[in-house]
């Protein structure tokens, strides 16, 4: 598995990273999962070549070079500005089917008329704005006579994302905001659905190799038929790797094993692509930790040693004396303490610059 993990680390830009800008890192992946807004900034920062500073990543968000929206499964992801339109269009129907689930519609008093009205109100209140928070928008909607219970605004905003109306704006007081997509991202030529699927497959396998068709289905939210068509279209760039009864695909850009370089230990943020982007995670997660990495859909920050996930980590900046805590899946792994401490210092330097 050493070679397997080396290939993954390289594709994931965790060793020998090649990109100096945050937007190039995100574009390499296509999309990076980002429920935890602060965590995904570290996910980008730890993959930068050379200087890794929070201000570099934050500037890319504020300038609209990286945007945060709902795509694929659906959940929060960050996407480069150049990719947001085709990726949102590709995901629109599947996300809307979740938004318009009958029980959710009834519970939140949602309707087609309300979705249409909400889009008009978003245009009215966001035009010319660098961004308004969800709470600010909710207050404006209430003033317009729209009843908002817990979850209403979240669903209305998600719908507006799927139709290409809104996206993330400039942070305000440390909080994410929403802005009009057309005011943040120039219009571009549209891709057909087939073209979008091929592009998504190429992005996935170049940044996540080795990976299986099932992994791509999980990550993309596509049906098996469409996902398989995407893989077939890019097979000219893929090499096959057989392990047991599984066939993995390795993109030609990352088919050569690189020597392990410093750092050997990585502190992966919650929901990091290195773990969450695969249906089967047994190749990279310690056997004693497979049921400890997540709970009820929440994925925890993880410690990876040479690509092998061996424990959990937590940082509480309120604890001045010992803010970092770790929990290894196997007691004997405490020998990694020096490398983990070094990794923590890199994380701390990034977040507290």
Keywords:
alpha+beta, Arc Repressor Mutant, subunit A, 3 domains, 4-stranded antiparallel beta sheet, 13 strands, 16% strand, globular
Structure overview:
GO terms for molecular function: DNA binding. InterPro entries: AlkZ-like. The chain is α+β, with helices and mostly antiparallel strands and 353 residues long. It has 3 domains: 1-183, Winged helix-like DNA-binding domain superfamily/Winged helix DNA-binding domain (Arc Repressor Mutant, subunit A, Orthogonal Bundle); 193-254, Orthogonal Bundle (Arc Repressor Mutant, subunit A), CATH 1.10.10; 265-351, no CATH class. The protein has 15 helices and 13 strands. The chain has helices spanning 2-11, 22-29, 37-45, 54-62, 84-99, 102-107, 112-126, 134-143, 152-162, 181-184, 193-208, 213-220, 224-233, 273-276, 337-351; strands at residues 32-33, 66-71, 75-80, 166-168, 178-180, 238-243, 246-251, 265-268, 294-295, 298-299, 302-305, 308-315, 324-328. A 4-stranded antiparallel sheet has the order 8-11-12-13. Strands 1-3-2 form a 3-stranded antiparallel sheet. The chain has a two-stranded antiparallel sheet with strand order 4-5. Strand 2 (66-71) and strand 3 form a beta hairpin. Helix 3 crosses helix 4 (54-62), helix 7 (112-126) crosses helix 9 and helix 12 packs across helix 13 (224-233). The protein is globular. The mean pLDDT is 93.
Rg, Cα atoms, Å = 21 Å
Structural class by helix and strand composition: alpha+beta
How many H/I helical runs? 15
**Which series of helices and strands comes N to C?**
HHEHHEEHHHHHEEHHHHEEEHEEEEEH
Counted beta strands:
13
Strands ordered across the widest β-sheet: 8-11-12-13
When the domains are counted, the total is 3
What is the C-level CATH assignment of the largest domain?
Mainly Alpha
Enter the CATH topology name of the largest domain. Answer: Arc Repressor Mutant, subunit A
The CATH homology group name of the largest domain: Winged helix-like DNA-binding domain superfamily/Winged helix DNA-binding domain
Q: Termini separation (Å)?
A: 36 Å
Can you tell me the residue ranges where pLDDT is under 50 for at least 5 consecutive residues? none
The largest sheet is: 4 strands, antiparallel
Write the CATH architecture name of the largest domain. Orthogonal Bundle
Integer average pLDDT: 93
What best-fitting shape do the alpha-carbon axes yield? globular
Question: Roughly what fraction of the amino acids lie in strands?
Answer: 15-25%
